[in-house]
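Ex. 9. Protein: KaiC domain-containing protein.
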Amino acid sequence: MAGRVKFGVVGLDEMLHGGLLRASICAIVGTYGTGKTMFALQFAYEGLNRGEKVIYISLEEREELLRATMAQKGWDAKVFDDRFSLLRLDPTDFNLAINSIKSELPALIRSTGATRVVIDPISLFEGLFTDESIQRQEMFGFIEMMRDEDCTLVLTSETDVRDQNGSKYGLVEYLADTVILLRYIRSPGLTEVHLALEVVKMRRSPHSREIKPFEIQEDGIMVYSEASLF
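Predicted C-alpha cells for KaiC domain-containing protein:
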C-alpha cells in the first residue's frame, strides 16, 4: 500500500509532497465553476497515461460531454478504451444508482483491475438519502467498503451554500484522507477574481498549507505552487 499516486496536475503534486498516498481517498470540494470535474478528469487521464486502469463514474455530466471535454484538451480517450470505464448513472433512479455504487462497484474494480476510481460528484449520491442519520450511515459504509479495494479514490463535492469551506452535506471532508478545497479569491480592490486551491488536510503525510492560485488552461490545469495570490 506504500507509495505515491501522481495526481497529474502541475503544482498540485508538489503541494502533496509527490502525490496522493496509494489506496487513499481524496475529496475535491468546491463551488460551481471552480473546476472540480476538470481535476477529476486530469487525475483519471494521468492514470491512463501511466498504463493504469481507471473507472470514472459520473452522476451529473453525460458521457459524450465528458469525452468532448477530454477531446477539447487534446486527450484522446478512445486510445485507452480498453482500460477506461466511463459510466453515467442517473441519480434520479434511486435504486439503480444506489445498487450500482454499493453492490456493483467493488466487483467492477476487481474485474477490471482498476487502480484509480472517480465519483463525480459524490454529493449527488449523498443527496439520495433524505434522512440525515441514514445518509451518514450509508456514507460511512461506502467509504469503509472502498478501503477494502486496492485503488485510489477521488470524490468531488459541491460546497455548502452557507459555508464555502465545507462540502454540501459536511461529511466527505471528515471521511476522506485528503481534502482539496477549490475557491474563488477576490482581490482587495475587487478588480480581479482568481481561482485558488488549498490542501486542507492529508492524513499520514506532510503537505503544503498555503493557498495557491491555479488556472484551467486549454490542455489542463496549472497550479502555481511557488506564487502568492496577490
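Check your answer against this statement. The domain at 4-223 is CATH 3.40.50.300 (Rossmann fold).
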